[in-house]
Amino acid sequence: MKRREILKGGVAGGVAAAAATVAAPAIAQERIEIAMVSTWPRDFPGLGTGAQRFAKRISDMSDGRIQVEYFAGGERVKAFDSFDEVASGNAQMYHAADYYWKGKHPGWAYFTSVPFGLTYTEMNAWIRFGGGQELWDELAADFGLKNMMCGSTGVQMGGWFRKEINSADDFKGLKMRIPGLGGDVMAKLGASPVSLPGSQIYENLVSGSIDATEWVGPWNDSFMKFYEAAKYYYYPGMHEPGSMLAAGANKKFWDSLSKSDQYLIEAAAAMENDVMMSEYNAKNGEALAKLITDQGVELREFNDDVYDSFGEAADEVFDEVQSHDELAKRIHESFAKSREQVGSWAKISDQAYVAQRNRVLGL
Ligand code: CA
Q1: pTM for this structure?
Q2: How far is the CA of 37 from the centre of ligand 1 (A)?
Q3: Average pLDDT of 44-53?
């Protein structure tokens, strides 16, 4: 059955009736219904609750004139079918991590996070002022979509392992859940990366179908109980240093909206981009302490040799991405230019300051 969710003109009669006694608005605003699918389990803290908050905010900001019906992963379509559901016009919007679509074009990975990529603040700088949004628009338009920033997890952890990782050789033969280009880096090191939606990771880790997994960070990971099957918790994750979540809209639907409705949805998304990051930053530290003290989790840092191997493998992956097509090359070059400019500033601002503050305070 082909679903059509856009209902128009629902309030026109009310406006006409009111016009007899008060001045009618210059343009009668239309009632709009949006079906929003997502890749997250319902009520999953941060990712799921953030997406649901975004959906509700659109309704609230429009006093109910824009009604958003939200579907968690699997409720309307499977998590990873969200892209096709919206690109086809069956649903109007999705909330997802766009790197899930890297099989459709590797450029999508850059609009979530890539190995040796950008932190939250750096990502915002690239998307808003470094040409990122324009390239994202170009890529999305090729698939009939219009996308915008809508949340971030911040720097992610390296993942959960059953054994210690002391050198790149320890990745050989490892079956690991790690999506995006980070998975391709792991493959270069001899691992077998798999991409699973959040709802399927735990069972695969416990059953031994996978040996290791990354997910997000301490707050999110603590709900997944990965520590029951893998005690070693590594940081920092090279693969997702500031994973940006995306709101994607069917482009025909988007273009049919009034400018003010587009601004309303963009404002709701920009707010979620900020609020979600705030929540992760507020909750990760406490969750990590609990994982260590209550669950006996062993916190480990990837050593420099391992990180150097990640870097060499990432270079190979980026070469392959750029050879995909001309757009992939332009996306990579724009990203790399921003990384250099913003990264060199971060080095003597955020990074230098936090290092000194934490040294003095003994943090
Ligand atoms: Ca992740």
Answers
A1: 0.89
A2: 20
A3: 96
